[in-house]
From TrEMBL:
Gene3D superfamilies: Carboxypeptidase-like, regulatory domain, TonB-dependent receptor, beta-barrel domain, TonB-dependent receptor, plug domain. Keywords: Cell outer membrane, Membrane, Receptor, Signal. PANTHER family: PLUG DOMAIN-CONTAINING PROTEIN, TONB-DEPENDENT RECEPTOR-LIKE BETA-BARREL DOMAIN-CONTAINING PROTEIN. Residues 372-771 form the Outer membrane protein beta-barrel domain. This is Outer membrane receptor proteins, mostly Fe transport. Residues 1-20 form the signal peptide. It comes from Dokdonia pacifica.
Amino acid sequence: MNTRTLFLVLFFIVSAFAKAQTLQGTVVAESQEPLPYVNVIINAVDGTLVKAAITNEQGVFRIADLAPDTYTLVLSFVGYTTVEQTITITSTPRILPAIQLPLATESLEEVTVVAQKPIIQVEPDKTVFNVAGTVSSAGNNGIELLRKAPGVRLDNNNNVIVEGKTGVLIYIDGRQSFLQGDDLTAYLQALQADTIESIEIITQPSARYDAAGNAGIINIRLKREKGLGTRGSISSTVTVGDYLRTNNSVSLTSRLKKWNLYGTYSNYLGRSTSFIDLFRIQGDKIFDSQTDSELDGFSNNIRFGADHYLTKRSTIGGVITANFNDTESFSNSQTPIIDRNTGVIDSILRAPNSSENTTVNVGVNLNYRYQDTTGTTFSADVDYGRYTRDRLNNQPNFYVTPSGEILNENITLQDTPITIDIYAAKADYEQKLGKGVFETGVKASKVRTDNIFDFFNIINGTNILNVERSNEFIYDEKIYAAYAKYNAGTGKWKFQGGLRVEHTDSQGDLIAATETNNESVNRTYTDLFPSAGLTYAANRNNSFALNYSRRIQRPNYQDLNPFEYQIDELSFRRGNPFLQPQYTNNVKLSHTYKYTLTTSFSYSYVSDFFAQVTEAIGDSRNFLSTRNVADQEVYNISVSYPFKVNSWWSVYANVYGSYNVFTATNDAFISTSQETFGFYAQNTIRLPKDFKLEVSGWYSSPSIWGGTYETESIGSLNLAVQKTWKQWTGKITINDVLYTIPWNGTTQFGDLFIDGRGGSDSRNVNFYLQYAFGNNDVKKARKRNGSLEDEKGRIGG
């Protein structure tokens, strides 16, 4: 479909839905503070249910597709008196004045009222995992929580997989984290579950979002306190695995008339273990390596924000985030090198490696928001982020005989500092247009990354710079974007359509010791990213939704660096300056029965799919590189169902199946396909005396990771118990009870075959304790979707 046809289709569809009737309102408490998560019911005059919704974080609800008639509006929320109003819908949209819910008349001193959101919420465009409501989240960090999120899997490199596709972008409070690999893992490891409100899995982002992310977006929402006054909490977790680890956090929020101040500090301290075994066949030799690693880490996370209410309609705010991370890793690798023809061990490579990492990740966001009584809104964000990493890697290599006699030694040192600066600004505007809502916005961003790789040979204790293996890579990228989106509805139908345009200018410069080895990679391209959605409410029990979107996954900055550098004695890494972005077309059809049982079917086509592959160098060495290797097709089906067995036992269950087809476009890549199925289940059981038990788990059958690794099945069973008393909460959790998270898999690229297995100390016990103080009426701080939403996620770890 060409661009002109697309615009015509969008125009006629929008015109067809220009007669929608919409009801909008705001629900507030007696203090005039917005009330989120209020149940909103629209009944016909005979009491028949017509529509249902809940208020959002600002206490606002919006219900479309209401035919002109008289209805009963019912508002209910735990701890508040139910309010009913008779309303009349005409041929124009209606905005109600603020509706106040009074507190329930029973004595609140004698009754403790606890309003809880469902642990899992399934919405048309996303699934929300409400971490704050789970017991088993205690003591977990961000990485462990992603493993527990419904429909989410992590591969052996901690790449996130959703609906059978990689290329998921990680956001923190609406702003994408620019960390990846080991750095992202370290950051999420320090991010304690106690500071996380929810995890949103957005599989069909609209045109308002950046187009990056083949499989969509995972947005980690951090906690915000509510109401007037001052409130905070202090918590600590001790994890018992192979070694002891601790997570600690303190948070404080204060609402002072026209100011809302909030801050959080959390840290991680401890040692973790991992292993990886690789059986490699290359030419006439077999390399049977076994590596055990330990990581000592100390991470600090700081977040401080302020909102100033200039008027009742406008707010200005700012957020400062900082992460400081120091780690030391130690690994002991032993690789017997075997003659493939005779089976005799020629030699053994012993490599006791150590490295030191220091990272600093700082971000600043300034924002403004205006909203008038007609629903028109304007928001603007300006962001700056800086990421620095200093890494020093010491790599001794000793070749010995089977009896232990040293044959040869090679000791190297790599010093690899990185500095990345990111600038971004965006503005969004929304207003009612005709019978629907029109949105538009613009964004501009600039990224500059400076990577230095200094390689030293250590000879007789002296560090000697190897200029042939040292280089500097500077990458500059600018992205300009604009979008338009329209939502409308009529009768039982709703439609949303949008178009986003993104223009990219990039330049990568390799600065080598020898000028003849210098290279420069320049690119300029413009892309259109349409998105559309159609919803049909057949009756009170059945609704259908059809969504389409086109998305892009740009290469990580480091993957474009053409320089070849050494990882260890036998492995090298080389970027690919010819690496192309991969594009994805997604189509998803879903059906919801009685607002609970959701079934979805999706199809995705990924062109120029890129993956990290391992290629042979001669008879003994190999190098890692990222290449466009195939076109990918993904067929996916998912069924989710939250239900109550009885008044004290609730269950959320999700079952999925996917079929991945990789059609090779690279001669060395083998076309392959794989059927995968899995499930996720969460059981919450309320026990007497304020105890709560939680049993959860997930399973994934054999699958393909990154188009190259064919893996065996993995899964996890988790147990947790919670006890609350007054302002204290205690939890005990056991993760990966059966120790089934470690992975096994095989890969082949060209003449190189690898059979690998790996894992960490995922089976552990957590002891958690929290103390909450202050009142319960602190107003919720605004959630900021800053302008650094795409640029931060493409840094190689």
